[in-house]
Amino acid sequence: MSGSQPVPASFPAHPTRIVLTGFMGAGKTTVGALLAERLGWDFLDSDVLVEARAAMSVADIFARRGESAFRDLEAEVIREALTSGPGEPFVLALGGGALERRTTRDSLASLRDALVVFLEAPLDTMIARCATHEGGPVRPVLADRARLDERWTQRLPWYRRAHLTIDTAEMTPEKIVERILENLDTDHRRGSHEDARLPIDARRKTGAPA
What we know:
The protein is of the alpha/beta class.
C-alpha cells in the first residue's frame, strides 16, 4: 500500500459497540463471546451473519461463488449490523479479511460509539492455533504459507487503525477480556485515549476463510 497510513481516531468516550478485528486464529470469536457475556451485551459474528444471509456455510460460498462474492456479502451484513440504528449494545467479531473492503473501513471510521480492538499475535502463533483447534473448520489455506504471509502483510496496516491493540500471544481469552475491560474503565474516566483504537457470535463456524 502506498502513501501514509491512516491515524487511529480518538478512543470513544462511551462505546455501545465493540468491534474485534484481527487475522484468523487471533481469538476474535472466543474473546468476543466472553466479552459480551461480561458486559451483558449481544454478541455477533460476521461469518455467522453471512451464513445466515446466504443459507450456506462460508466454505460453500467460497466454493460456489468465489471470494469476491463472499466479500461483497460480508461487507453488506457488517454495514447493516453497524448502521442498524439505536438498539442493544453489542460486541461484533469481524472476519479476518473484512477490513480489505473500504466500505467496511469507512463504516467503522464513521461511528462515534464503536470501539475497535485489534487482537494481535505473531503469524506463526495464529497459524498454530488454527491447526490445533479441536473441532475447528478445515482450513486448506493453512498449507499456503506464502499466501498467508501476503495476506497478513496486506491487512496489518488496517488492523492497526484500531483504537486499542492487544498482544494476545501469551494471554488467555479471559485475560484478553480483562485487558479490554481495564481499558474501557480507564478511558471512560479519562474521556479520551491517545493511541488506542478499536472490533461476534459464539456459534460454531463452518469453514471461515483466512
